[in-house]
Amino acid sequence: MNGLFYMLVNFVVLGLLSLSTLSADDDYKIPPKAIADLVDAPVTPSINLSPDKKHLLILERTSLPSIAELSQPELRLAGLRINPKTNGRSRTNNYKSIIIKNIDSNKEKKVRGLPKSSRISNVFWAPNGKHIAISVINGDRINLYLADVKNGKAKLLIKKPLNAIYGSAVYWLSDSEGLIVKTIIENRGNVPAKSAVPDGPIIQENLGKVSPARTYQDLLASPDDEDLFDYYMTAQVYYVGINGKIKKIGKPGIIRRAEPSPDGQYILMETIHRPYSYLVPVYRFPILVQVLNIKGRIVHTLRDIPLAESIPIGRDAVIKGPRSFGWRSDVGATIYYVSALDQGDPNIDVSYRDELFSLAAPFTNVDEKSLIKLDLRYSGVMWGDKNNALIRTRRWKERRSTMWHLDPSSNKNKKIIDRSYEDRYNDPGSPMMEKNLYGRSVLALIDNKKILMSGNGASPDGDMPFIDEFDITSAKSKRLWRCEAPYYEKGISIIDKKNKVILSRRESKDETPNYMLRGLNDNSLNPITNFQHPYPQMKNLYKEMLTYKREDGIDLSATLYLPPGRKPEDGPLPLLVWAYPREFKTSKAASQVVGSPYRFLTINPASSSSSAIIMLSYGYAILMGATMPIIGEGDQEPNDSFVKQLVASAQAAADIMVERKITTRDQIGIGGHSYGAFMTANLLAHSDIFQAGIARSGAYNRSLTPFGFQSEQRTFWESPEIYFEMSPFMHAHKVNEPILLIHGEADNNSGTFPVQSKRYYHALKGHGATAKLVLLPHESHGYKARESVMHVLWETANWLDTYVKKEDKN
Prior knowledge:
Blueprint: H1 3-16, H2 33-39, E1 46-49, E2 55-61, H3 67-70, E3 75-77, E4 80-83, E5 88-89, E6 95-102, E7 108-110, E8 119-125, E9 131-138, E10 141-148, E11 154-158, E12 170-172, E13 178-184, H4 223-233, E14 235-241, E15 246-260, E16 266-272, E17 287-293, E18 298-305, E19 322-327, E20 334-340, E21 354-360, E22 369-374, E23 377-385, E24 388-395, E25 400-406, E26 413-420, E27 430-431, E28 433-435, E29 441-443, E30 450-455, E31 466-471, E32 476-482, E33 487-496, E34 501-508, E35 514-519, E36 525-527, E37 542-549, E38 555-562, E39 575-578, E40 582-584, H5 587-590, H6 608-613, E41 621-624, E42 629-631, H7 642-659, E43 668-673, H8 675-686, E44 692-696, H9 720-726, E45 739-744, H10 754-766, E46 771-776, H11 786-803
Parallel strand pairs: 39-41, 39-43, 40-42, 43-44, 44-45, 45-46
Antiparallel strand pairs: 1-2, 2-6, 3-4, 4-5, 6-7, 8-9, 9-10, 10-11, 12-13, 13-14, 14-15, 15-16, 16-17, 17-18, 19-20, 20-21, 21-22, 23-24, 24-25, 25-26, 27-30, 28-29, 30-31, 31-32, 33-34, 34-35, 35-36, 37-38, 38-41
Helix pairs in contact: 7-8
């Protein structure tokens, strides 16, 4: 069959399907108490380390918002979701209080002086660690407060409300005496009214230019949208002293970034401008990149980046010309940027892909300096000092990643790491960073030639994080420390480089994560926090990492959970398998174990995987993270045999559970979120392994994502048979097990439009399948409102009880 035939089949079927019958019993439900108690359990705080490493901020997080909060007005413009009331982003996670903890004395003080009904959006440490800037959502605005670390008192720093929609609205200057902030412009007038009568049709035109694009959500769609975008996005930059004095910098504009140089003498300004696009999000709009002095005068224009509607297809595709502008963090005022040497097209055969440049102050009448040419695509740089920088590159088709050492003074360079990034067992870790005198992150160099590497320590026994000392000159590592069973402990930050003391996060199966001072030389351990178990009723649950084989010899792994007090020998339980397929280019990488048997069971009710884990409290066994590798070695692409490999992996998971007598073959359910939902629908269409499925926020018709999806780079027109074979929609007539479809009505994830679930449900209903569609008002790709989360768990428990659980066997 050819692509045109598939498209015709698709559109005809869509046109013939009838609308479904609505349920009359459509109010929000509450799941059984054991489940609801976990949803309402206290949330473990987050932490934030001061630049001087003397204090921790303990950030107490807010609980789930109500559906009333989520139902507030929201604008969806150019890929952004905007709260028009506050002129900030909607659906953000916030904090309710801040505690300042002295690491040496263990003394704590609560930040006082913030409005009682406010929510904390972000915190920003001053480089000297003496003050904290706090963005606070207060009624209809976002205000900037300043807290004194010494006494914990906070005060309103500037009356002008922040414009916090896009990019950071707050940057500290390196002297810790002032900040650069973005605010709403003065006297901006009323919100533009939508035209009642259109001025004319909305026209898009392409004059023979190849312009493939993914299926983005929330795009601009009309001149009215453009006016709203201008109204809410336009900002004014100010200098604000910690004494409250302010000074305007530059002109108003749609400012993506206004970042001061490390020495505080210049500002890197990125301003978005027209023409806008109805095909791509805001980050592809035209951007004027300039350097201003601290008084706001334009010093140098780096580039006016044009609208990027025509980036080539491919994971490593980028725009033509200079991109990725930034400040070198190790010197006072030097810009760096990257320029593609292959026209941004990864399919063009060239010796070098990218070139890294720098441009030093005063920027005018100064030539840019070429630092290094890279054979793979640039993916990031970490600056250290005048003699040390590390540059990351990668090539997606080869799943290959490299790291280069660069001496910025002499331009000498050396490749120090070259590996497959799929190979978790041989991952050397990531360089640990520290803050310099400018308050910027730089490599934590030891003796000018060594760094500390923090890694996950993946192994056949699970993840066991480590800290290595890596010699840049010899490219060899020396193991300093590795966590030991029965704990999972990971290095977070360096506290004392000379004596090799780090801040670590330590947890176990039954011990909630807490932060420690870990001495790498003497293996000492001193606790800093003492967060309590948020759900003690889940203590003593059974957790086991399993390994087993697929019929083709591929090693698979998963984590088995049983309800507290339950053991495998106690007999079979109904089982829910929760998984997410991943693509690999080698069977060796696909066979590696994922996860750790010693991690704490953190339950985040808004997390998709937690909706499965919570079922432990309701008497179900859970097989979490059952690996479903899709492998394409050599010239083969993984998706060439997607269905066959998927079914084989699922069969192996079910077989091991039955062999271990964890469950019986007639009480196994399958579920997943997003691509896991896609997996679930495919397994019900192409196998009879499971009794029922739960598919959340999935995409089921791949012809609606014709320019690629997930890791598939081929287009629909290049490989129509792949798109057809992988689309559950095309096989709806084969589904003979009950399937529960759940989708947020405001899903903004690329490709997973709510219409995917609607049309798939219509197809299932048209063929007489047992199916249910639950659409969650105002919810996005993930679900946030307490009412929505509770209802999803009620639906999940009810579906499993009805179609998976066999009462006479449990």
